[in-house]
């Protein structure tokens, strides 16, 4: 009698597949490990061919890894590493008992195929280790998805997986190493050539502020810039101004370029404090010269509204991208920046502001200072990896308020240790008008009308001098001079601009 065979169900196929994976042996090449160790014991100079990418942890056989580490320690200490010298180290430890004792060292010599092949053996060992790590990451992904880490939701699990892959990709032996000096010189010459061909003082990406560009030469790739200030100083407004100016410069550059050679570039803003709509409204308010307060209330005349709409159509072409994810992690930010760089090109990253960020998923800092240190180091690494300037806004501590002179200093940075250290430039926004407004004389504080009037006149004089003025204090700059840049600030539109001290009549 014939029996009808039904095709296996999807569930059974998945079980069979998972069973097949579990029954497979992890990638390893013990023969290559023994051949490499034999080559090292025969001639210690072979160590130079593998030392920059290989460690004992990369060996599949733990005993072989221990032997490699012992060889490494002796060679780096300037000592001879051979079966005779290593015998004394392993003789009484019992480490080699499972492989037959110290005679295993002599056996390794017979496994050597050739010293010249040492680097190839090392690469085979390292490649097998990478594959084992990928298997471990894959298992973690599956286990987390099944609920092994209930503290991580779906997006956090994706971010954690991406972070693990990133760490593996940047592990010792993947990239890096020395760059020949002639190559470095050629790269430096290319940068100098680009600067020479450009007109004006801007070498990098423009900030839209003439005097700031003169001091810095623009925004340079791989730089981490910190823009700090007390609340209400205008940090976000200034950062938005810089981001907008950079995006407009990129758009104009693309328009003027030949059709077959259009440059790719865009500006990314990570707004952790304000929504994308609020940030867009602020840019529109600045460019259309329409008060943000009027926009929010809908108190617009027909001419103002028409101008508002016209400007919005023009700004829609800007290569400007806003991510308003609250409390975004460093790993998620890195992933999104890489994606944007790959699809549309990336020229500038703005983070508002770094104290609202979280470190990479899976990393746990002991305290807030260490957490901020991990974030700033990560932002600097991101700037170097993608070769773009990163501007990170930062809050200042309240100790500023306790001083007579409210101008910020480097020590005022909150959780300042690594912020100051990792940054290539640190800038402070300061507006004297903000503090003067709080110090308006009160009539009840004076025993005569004359004294009150004198105090009011002096206060008004100072207010007139500080009116619509701001200072951008360049406290640290790794590649140029420091000093103060005086700016124009229009409070109605929260707009920064160049301050013209001399006017033509």
From TrEMBL:
PROSITE patterns to which the protein is assigned, alphabetical: SF4_HELICASE
Keyword list, A-Z: ATP-binding, DNA replication, DNA-binding, Helicase, Hydrolase, Isomerase, Nucleotide-binding, Primosome
GO biological process: DNA replication, synthesis of primer
Superkingdom per UniProt: Bacteria
PANTHER family: REPLICATIVE DNA HELICASE (PTHR30153:SF2), REPLICATIVE DNA HELICASE DNAB (PTHR30153)
Subunit structure: Homohexamer.
Entry's family note: Belongs to the helicase family. DnaB subfamily.
Any one Gene Ontology molecular-function term assigned to this protein's record: DNA binding
InterPro entries: DNA_heli_DnaB-like_N_sf, DNA_helicase_DnaB, DNA_helicase_DnaB-like_C, DNA_helicase_DnaB-like_N, DNA_helicase_N/primase_C, P-loop_NTPase
Gene name tied to this protein: dnaC
Any matching Pfam family: DnaB
Cellular component, GO annotation: cytosol; primosome complex
Function (record text): The main replicative DNA helicase, it participates in initiation and elongation during chromosome replication. Travels ahead of the DNA replisome, separating dsDNA into templates for DNA synthesis. A processive ATP-dependent 5'-3' DNA helicase it has DNA-dependent ATPase activity.
Protein name, entry field: Replicative DNA helicase
Enzyme class: isomerase
EC number: 5.6.2.3
Naturally occurring in which organism (per UniProt): Komagataeibacter saccharivorans
Catalytic activity: ATP + H2O = ADP + phosphate + H(+)
């Amino acid at each position: 009698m014939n029996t009808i065979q039904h095709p296996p169900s999807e569930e059974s196929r998945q079980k069979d597949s998972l069973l097949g994976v579990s029954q497979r042996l992890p990638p390893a090449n013990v023969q290559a490990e023994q051949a490499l160790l034999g080559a090292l014991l025969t001639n210690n100079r072979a160590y130079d061919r593998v030392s920059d990418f290989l460690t004992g942890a990369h060996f599949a056989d733990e005993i072989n890894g221990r032997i490699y580490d012992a060889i490494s320690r002796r060679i780096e200490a300037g000592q001879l590493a051979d079966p005779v010298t290593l015998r004394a180290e392993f003789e009484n430890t019992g480490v080699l008992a499972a492989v037959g004792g110290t005679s295993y060292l002599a056996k390794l010599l017979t496994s050597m195929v050739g010293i010249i092949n040492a680097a190839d053996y090392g690469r085979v060992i390292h490649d097998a280790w990478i594959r084992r790590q990928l298997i471990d990451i894959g298992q973690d992904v599956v286990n987390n998805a099944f609920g092994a880490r209930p503290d991580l939701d779906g997006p956090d699990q994706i971010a954690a997986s991406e972070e693990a892959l990133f760490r593996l990709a940047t592990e010792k032996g993947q990239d890096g190493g020395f760059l020949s000096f002639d190559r470095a010189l050629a790269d430096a010459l290319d940068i100098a050539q680009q600067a020479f061909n450009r007109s004006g003082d801007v070498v990098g990406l423009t900030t839209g502020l003439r005097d700031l560009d003169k001091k810095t030469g623009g925004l340079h790739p791989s730089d981490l810039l910190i823009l700090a200030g007390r609340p209400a100083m205008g940090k976000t407004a200034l950062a938005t101004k810089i981001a907008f100016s950079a995006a407009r410069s990129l758009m104009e550059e693309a328009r003027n370029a030949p059709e077959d050679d259009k440059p790719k570039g865009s500006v990314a803003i990570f707004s952790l404090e304000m929504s994308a709509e609020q940030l867009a409204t602020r840019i529109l308010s600045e460019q259309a010269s329409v008060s943000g307060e009027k926009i929010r209330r809908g108190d617009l005349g027909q001419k103002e509204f028409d101008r508002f709409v016209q400007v919005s159509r023009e700004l829609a072409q800007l290569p400007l991208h806003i991510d308003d994810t609250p409390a975004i992690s460093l790993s998620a930010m890195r992933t999104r920046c890489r994606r944007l760089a790959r699809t549309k090109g990336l020229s500038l990253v703005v983070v508002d502001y770094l104290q609202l960020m979280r470190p990479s998923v899976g990393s746990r800092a002991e305290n807030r200072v260490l957490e901020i240190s991990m974030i700033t180091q990560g932002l600097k690494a991101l700037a170097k990896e993608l070769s773009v300037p990163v501007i990170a806004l930062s809050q200042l501590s309240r100790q500023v308020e306790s001083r007579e002179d409210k101008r910020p200093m480097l020590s005022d940075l909150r959780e300042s240790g690594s912020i100051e250290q990792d940054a290539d430039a640190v800038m402070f926004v300061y507006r004297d008008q903000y503090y003067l407004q709080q110090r308006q004389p009160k009539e009840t504080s004076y025993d005569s009308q004359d004294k009150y009037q004198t105090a009011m006149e002096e206060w008004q004089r100072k207010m007139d001098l500080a009116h619509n003025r701001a200072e951008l204090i360049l406290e640290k700059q790794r590649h140029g001079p420091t000093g103060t840049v005086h700016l124009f600030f229009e409070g109605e539109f929260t707009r920064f601009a160049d301050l013209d001290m001399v006017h033509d009549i």
